Amino acid sequence: METRDWIRDGLRAVAAGLLSIVLAVLNIPLFVLFVVSLVLTPVLGIGLVALPAVTVLIRAKADLARRTAAWHGVSITRPYRPKPAGVGLIGWQRYHWVITDPATWRDVAWLLPGAVGGLVLGVLTLALPAYGVEGITLLPLWIYLGEGWSGYGVNWPIQNIAEGFLSLPQGLVFLALGLVVAPHLRRFEGLWAKLFLAPTRAAELRLRVTQLTVTRADTVDAQAAELRRIERDLHDGAQARLVSLGMTIGLAEELVERDPETARKLLAEARENSSTALVELRHLVRGIHPPVLAERGLDGAVRALALTSRIPTTVDSDVPGRLETPVESAAYFAVAEALANVQRHSAATFAYVSMHRSGDLLRLEVGDDGRGGADMTRGTGLAGMERRLAAFDGTMTLSSPPGGPTIVTMELPCASSSPRTMLSSGTD
Question: Are the CB atoms for 135 and 167 separated by under 8 Å?
Fold first, then answer.
């Protein structure tokens, strides 16, 4: 790791430690409000309104803790049950939904330990760098000089001055140590929060079922749309040309005896139409499963895409061996769609594709130096990519600030034992 990297990460972790101290204090009043709301439930039904409202604040605070943990490499899944149909903003149904969700009680159980952990680890994150900064700014020197002034009149003791200057290298050591340790302390706090805020095994299974239901519906819709596209392309393209080809050949047969010259022209036209129909069929086949993907694998297929791109595109690939066919296909079409978006919308002068496999995870990144401003909520291309990856438990993130650059990051499990991969490949 370069020097500026660990310094940057350390400074970010120190800033996160300061934020953690501020946020940890908020846990205590939230815990008090929850207990008061729970106690007041039998009293005129005040808790029926107050407790769900307090729970919203607690969940927002817990979500913030999950996001800050993610900053330091600790992923915590949201475990809450989906809101049942017909549940309003207030009332018994909403109260019952909140109070019977085990995640609510796990959040409440985290509030006080989270406050203690946040304060302690936040202070530790700040202590070492602060002590180092104190040494670097030679604060002990001025203390020694002040003592020398008061104890020796106008004579400043040389020993105290030397000790003061020795605090400079000591401060540098403590500052560097603090910046190195700070990210680990932030990660430890994320792991501490995960003990409370992560879903239980039962909740994970419930969330998995919900996710599978959603992605299954998305996959079915995507497959139906793909079939309609193939049918439309066949009907409007190759099929129409083949019908025209048959009519041209039939007309040539009628004219071959009495007007051979016209018949030859019609046959020449038929030959051109057959070539065009063949090209369209090849494009259609490539849209279903490109031959280059079957022959060369993901690496070769993506490099072929880069060569045909109108924008200069580099490929950095570290994907040894072949992946499961469904995974390769999903990754290829996701990269192809991302590069198509670059050519259509980015006004970029350069693009790149990065593909790396780490264990059972395939990480894809497509970026450009264009104008940015891409939005997943506009259009269907990015949303289609996300649905295609979600069918394999994959994820996609987009970074595209106005003015660029645009970076699309995709992660896709590529283990042959992945449940979605097995289902998609037709394994019984």
Answer: yes
Q: Omega into 405 within 30° of 0, i.e. cis?
A: yes
Q: Are 198 and 77 in contact (CB under 8 A)?
A: yes
Give 21-62 pLDDT, tens digit per residue: 988 999 999 999 999 988 888 776 787 888 888 999 999 999
Give the strands of the sheet with 395-399, arranged side by side.
313-318, 351-358, 361-368, 406-413, 395-399
Tens of pLDDT, residue by residue over 361-391, are 888 999 998 888 887 766 556 777 777 777 7
Domain ranges of the chain: 3-197, 203-288, 293-424
> Parallel, antiparallel, or unpaired: how do β-strands 406-413 and 361-368 relate?
antiparallel
CB of 362 within 8 A of CB of 318? no
DSSP state for residue 40 in the 8-state scheme: T
Handedness of CA 93, 95, 98, 99 (dihedral sign): negative
Which residues lie across from 397 on neighbouring strands? Answer: 409
Element at 316 (helix H, strand E): strand 313-318
C-alpha to C-alpha distance for 1 and 6, rounded to whole angstroms: 7
144: phi then psi, degrees, rounded to nearest 5: -65, -40
Cβ proximity of 400 and 369 under 8 Å: no
Q: Is the pLDDT of residue 424 over 50?
A: no
Domain spanning 203-288: CATH 1.20.120:
no
β-strands 351-358, 361-368: how paired?
antiparallel
211 half-sphere exposure, CB direction, 13 A CA radius: 20
Q: Give the CB-side neighbour count of residue 334, counting CA atoms within 13 A.
A: 33
d(CA 386, CA 380): 10
Cβ-in-10-Å burial (0-12, 13-18, 19+) of 178 comes to: buried
Chain mean position to CA 265: 58
| Domain 293-424 architecture | 2-Layer Sandwich (3.30)
Q: What is the pLDDT of residue 115?
A: 93
Per DSSP bridges, beta strands 406-413 and 351-358 are: unpaired
d(CA 131, CA 34): 38
> CA–CA separation, 53 vs 36, rounded Å?
12
